Automatic annotation (TrEMBL):
The protein's name in its UniProt record: histidine kinase
Bias (Basic and acidic residues) ranges: 188-207
GO molecular function: phosphorelay sensor kinase activity
Domain of life: Bacteria
């Protein structure tokens, strides 16, 4: 690399939105956290100004979580000092992740705010130079107090409790948590211990008694951990966990692996559920035929690899992984992958698709015996194998008709399942919905006349062109109009009108009394009875629901508006109506 322009590249981009702001915040502290190198001072100053601007868009709690993530190693004293002057939670997280030399600590600590120096007293891995500077500055209490100190604290227990010091215990850092447990236990036990106790029992007279009393207090705290009095809110760190709401399914998270392909870091609350999972041994494949394992072995980026995670409910399921290898700057040594997991489909979509697949499998299993019954009935009815009495032929014809109606119902169920899950798209084309509605209403008038019922239609004489194939438009219009005709009672008059509403055509139909009384017209079980027009074997509600799914697939909607049923469909725009240059012979060559 002849010159390093990564910082300029990051600053050239503008963070639009909270997620982009967090990403750029991570990028900047990653670049600025490296060892000080030669570069443009103005560019570095611009980077710190950008950090200040990003801090206004990211809440303090989330910034502290970002700075406290595993994997950060701040080796730039300038950035550590800048973080030391930030909010206490951010300063504490940054000072815990700072890895400086003894000389750098010796120069930096006196320049830090007094509050930030206090955070360093909990570090166990500071070099001797840093410890010496802290001792000279009077920053003490970096270990469990000695017994005589415990005696003095016990004797002065009547003094009101002071605020507990902030303890650097990152969520994913087990070593830091274990190193600080001995400090956190006595402080928390002070709040759990009853206050009404004779002073004579709290006062230790010898060193041995002080140590024994301290051990007893720690054991009592561990026994009583998480218990609260009736009506009292839990105040201990481990209390009240049973009331925590269950985790929600995760849609995406960022991760990194070590050189063996095992996840060693993940963002936020996902880390405890995925850290330790080995990705290099998984054989799932991506869109290009390569799996994550193959990409890991060849040290190549992976795009769209499908992986299945098992474990906690929040992460269980199918995922798509995009990741890239990482190499050390100086030696070029491979040390893992960094990337992002994202759900293959959302849990709701996955459940809906799974239900639709089960329904289609069930319909496939049911079609086989129904087809067999229909075939044998037609053989008998048509006397394929010889003469058959007319009575048996009539029964066979009835069975064949019933089988045909059942298969038609199966087809409607399958069509609805495919439409509602997006597995089926309506055929595109050009059709005149107004002409189709006029023709079908004319046909249905002859069916309604024997019942002294009719359609009072006002459709006009204009054209309503739809970007939909004619057979699809005819099926949709017939499903709506035939269902209304089948539910129309004797002597009823159903008003219909067709109007243009902007770039849509709306067919408004008055609901018959049988459907108007239903609370949900799309769940109504009303049937046509003895009418020659049938709404299907599942009733009018199912037919209207199927019509609604078809309308939505065409870009429209079928809804109930008080006592009316409104079918809205998008009209064919002038741009869509223009012929394609390929279709014009005279212009095809040009």
């Amino acid at each position: 690399m002849h010159f390093d322009d990564r910082l300029a590249t990051v600053l050239r981009l503008r963070a639009q939105g909270e997620r982009a702001a967090k990403t750029q915040f991570r990028q900047l502290i990653d670049l600025l956290g490296e060892r000080p190198q030669a570069g443009d001072p103005a560019l570095k100053a611009a980077a710190y100004l950008r950090l200040i601007a990003l801090a206004e868009a990211i809440p303090v709690k989330e910034r502290a979580a970002i700075v406290g993530e595993n994997g950060w190693r701040f080796r730039n004293p300038e950035l550590v000092r800048w973080f030391g002057e930030a909010h206490p939670t951010i300063a504490a997280a940054a000072l815990y992740r700072a890895h400086l030399t003894g000389a750098e600590w010796e120069e930096l600590i006196p320049r830090l705010p007094i509050r930030a120096r206090g955070f360093l007293r909990h570090r166990r891995d500071l070099p001797p130079e840093a410890v010496s500077v802290l001792d000279r500055l009077g920053v003490q209490d970096r270990a469990l107090p000695l017994p005589d100190m415990v005696e003095m604290l016990v004797e002065e227990s009547a003094i009101p409790d002071a605020p507990e010091p902030l303890i650097l215990t990152p969520a994913n850092d087990i070593e830091g948590h274990a190193a600080m447990t001995d400090e956190a236990v006595p402080a928390a036990e002070e709040h759990a211990k009853p206050t009404e106790e004779p002073p004579s029992r709290r006062r230790a007279t010898t060193d041995g008694e002080g140590i024994r009393a301290l051990v007893e207090r720690i054991e009592a705290f561990k026994r009583n951990r998480g218990t609260t009095l009736p009506g009292e809110a839990p105040s201990l760190p481990m209390a009240g966990l049973e009331a925590v709401a269950p985790r929600k399914p995760v849609d995406a998270f960022i991760f990194s692996t070590d050189s063996e392909g095992r996840i060693d870091w993940a963002e936020g609350e996902i880390a405890p559920m995925v850290v330790g999972i080995e990705l290099a041994v998984r054989a799932e494949r991506n869109e290009n035929g390569d799996g994550f394992a193959a990409a890991f072995i060849n040290r190549r980026p992976v795009r769209g690899a499908h992986l299945a995670l098992h474990g906690a409910e929040a992460i269980a399921g199918d995922w798509i992984v995009d990741a890239a290898p990482r190499f050390t700057r100086n030696e070029g040594r491979f040390f893992g992958f960094v990337g992002r997991f994202r759900r293959a489909v959302t849990p709701a979509e996955d459940q809906r698709h799974a239900g639709a697949d089960r329904l289609r499998q069930l319909l496939h299993e049911l079609r086989t015996p129904v087809n067999a019954m229909q075939g044998y009935a037609e053989v008998i009815q048509q006397q394929v194998f010889g003469p058959t009495p007319h009575e048996y032929r009539a029964l066979a014809a009835s069975i064949a008709g019933d089988s045909a109606r059942i298969l038609a119902g199966f087809d409607e169920l399958d069509r609805l399942a495919k439409l509602e899950t997006g597995a089926l798209e309506l055929e595109q084309g050009t059709s005149d919905f107004a002409a189709i509605a006029r023709e079908q209403i004319k046909q249905l008038q002859s069916v309604l006349s024997p019942r002294v019922a009719r359609f009072e239609a006002d459709l006009g004489d204009w054209d309503a062109l739809l970007p939909l194939a004619k057979n699809e438009a005819e099926m949709l219009a017939w499903r709506v109009l035939a269902t209304l005709a089948g539910a129309t009672g004797a002597g009823e008059t159903i008003e219909l009108d067709l109007r243009s509403e902007g770039n849509q055509v709306a067919l408004r139909a008055q609901l018959p009394a049988m459907l108007a009384s239903a609370e949900d017209v799309f769940s109504s079980e009303a049937r046509s009875g003895g009418s020659t027009v049938s709404s299907g074997i599942f009733g009018a509600g199912f037919s209207l629901r199927l019509a609604r799914a078809e309308a939505r697939a065409a870009g429209g909607e079928l809804r109930r508006d008080s006592g009316w049923l409104v079918l809205s469909l998008p009209l064919l725009t002038p741009v869509d109506a223009l012929p394609s240059p390929v279709d014009e012979p005279g212009r095809a060559a040009g």
